Each structure stands twice: as structure tokens, then as C-alpha cells.
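WARN retry 2 of 3 for item q-0093 after timeout on previous attempt; input resubmitted unchanged.
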Amino acid sequence: MKNLGIKIALYLNYFVFAILLNSVGIVILKSQKNYGVDEVQASILEAFKDMPIAIVSFFIASFLPRIGYKKAMLIGLALVTLACISMYFGNSFDNAKILFATVGVSFALIKVSVYSLIGTVTENQKEHNALMSSIEGVFMIGIALAYFLFPAFNNENDPNSWLNVYWLLAGLSLVSFLFLFFTKFEETQVTAGANFTDDFLQMFKLIAKMLTVVFVISVFFFVMIEQGILSWLPTFNTKVLHLPENISIMMASILAISLAIGRLVAGIITKTINWIWVLSFCVIAAMLIVYFVLPNVVGLEVKTINTFSDIPLIAFAFPLIGLFIAPIYPLLNSIVLSSLPKNLQSSMTGLIVIFSALGGTLGSRITGWLFKNEGPEKAFYFTLIPMFLLLIAFFILKKITSKNEI
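OK item q-0093 returned
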């Protein structure tokens, strides 16, 4: 199959980083328990993860083709391998900050490379939509695995036992590095601007377009919603449902699995149904879950819970919101990227990564503040605001793209 080795490398890299990036919710929970920090202090880990992604993407996205996508991804994988080993030996909140900062820098290199290479290994928009959705689906499978990996290494009688998972994560990063290293890449299709200044200015020229403004705002709102829920669901399960720590973490996997299924299914549905109707239905369904299901979860009369069978069925319903918010991100990205010439896709990917990072940071910080000041019972209700704004943005984006403004 054409470009099979490259595609496998893209899947593998994204899978490894899915586990690392989205372990932040688990580390937030462990930091409160092991390192004595409160909710607002713990939420800073999201910023240490996301701000390096935004900063590095801003400076390297447009001229990354000059460095070479393969070389950039190898650098990222090498850095996180070392960071995982450092976390094991460091075992402190400061080391957790360093870990996520390193993961953020590395993921900027990985994501810009992966998104740009999708355009070089696909022939048309349908192929682009399918590969984008499936890669994002694999990303969510990695997230789901994280919610089982960490509890597998966690012994509540030994507060340091969970750190052993970082040896496994270092090993996965090394395997991904070696596979990528021996995979033959043809990057001649990817071109850069005439010089560094031209490459850098491309991003600003894209920002000037109304389409780009609406698009990046949509990405910002979505990631604010997704990361706010993903990062704080383990804490919600512990403080509201009073679940044991390991069960709280594993329960959060339902959200990640729902996201994975939603993204994989979206790649099929959008072949026959226009994206605006798919996304509108999804965000309205998500709003209904928050409005009608969440109050029943919060209002549960909690009894002693030791296993999954002790958990009331309604508690499993809220994480299913992932089925409906899942298609939003890959479809938005694919709609815009597949309409751009290949030499502009790296610059646009930089904007996607930057605003995704900012949305993730702000979403987690706001949710952490709400958990502390409004109570964990009320925090998730505030996701209704960005959901409503996102719905409006979809129709504005549809109007602009129908004019072929790109």
C-alpha cells in the first residue's frame, strides 16, 4: 500500500503522545494527593503542557519543512524519552512541570509534522478527512489506554508506585523513535518559502483572512471544552461520586473511548452527510447531555463503591458526551487544511496547534478555578457557554467556506 510506512509512523507517534499529553488529568489528581497542591495550583500543569506547544508552534511551524518533518519528529521522541526517565527519578511537582513542558515542546514538532504530512500522503478531500479522523481516533485510543496504564502501576499503599509507568512510556517513545528512524520518507513534495522571513509572515497573512479568524476561534472553543472535561473528570469522579482513586481514573476512560469511537465513525458519516449538519447535531446533543444528564449524576446518593458494579448506571452516561464532541476537531481541521495548497498547510497547522494549546490551557485553568470556587458539582455546567458559541461559529464558517474564500 502506498505510503504505508509513513502512515504507520504517524499513527504510532500520535498514539505515544496521546498517552503522555492526556495523562495530565491523572497527574493533576496525583499532585493534589502526593505533592500537597490545591486545584488551582495543580491546574498549572495544563499550562506547562500547552504553552510550550503554542510558543514552539508559533516559531517553527512555517519553516519546519526546512528542518525536515522526519528529523523534527525524531527530536521530539528523543526528548520525551529522556523526560519520562527524569520524572521517575525526580518525583516532585516541579519535575511534573518539566515533564509536561518537554512533552509540549515535542508535541509541537510532532503535530505540525503529522498534520502537514497528511496532505502529502492523501489524494483528495475524502482521503484527507478519513485519514485525519482515523489518526485523531487513534489519538483518543491512546488517551483511553492512559486511564488503564496508570492505575495498573498504582498501588494506594505505595504513593510512589505509579511512577513506574514512566519506564513503560519511555520504552514506547524509544520504539516509536526506532520505527520512524528506519522508515523511508520522501519529503520532496513539501516546499517552504523563499526565506525565513517569508515563512514566518505566511502565518500572519493567513490570520488576516476572515475564514482563519472564525476557524481558529472554533478550534479554541472546542479544545477549551474537551480539555476542561478530560483533565478534570478523574477529580470529578473522586470528589463528586466519591470513587476510589483507581476507579476514578479508569471511569474517565469512558470519555476517551467515546471520543475515539466518535472520531472513527465521523470519518464514515461525513462521506454522505454535509459536515455542518453533523457538527450542529453533535454540539446540540452535547449541550443536552450537560443540561439533562449531569444534574442526575451530581444528585446521586453515593454509597460505598469498591468496584465498577457498585457504580449507578447514570454515572456512566455523562462521559458519553465524548461521542458527540469527538467529530468536531478533526472535521474542522480537515475542512480547512484540505482546501489549502500544500505549501500553506504547515503555517495553518501552526495556527491550529497554537490556538488548540491556548484553548486547552484556558479550559483547564477555568475548570480548576470553578472546581475550587464554585464546587466540583457545578464546574462542568459552564461548558454550555463555549458550546453555544461554537454552534454559532459553525454557521459563520459554513457561510464563508461556501464562498470559497480560501
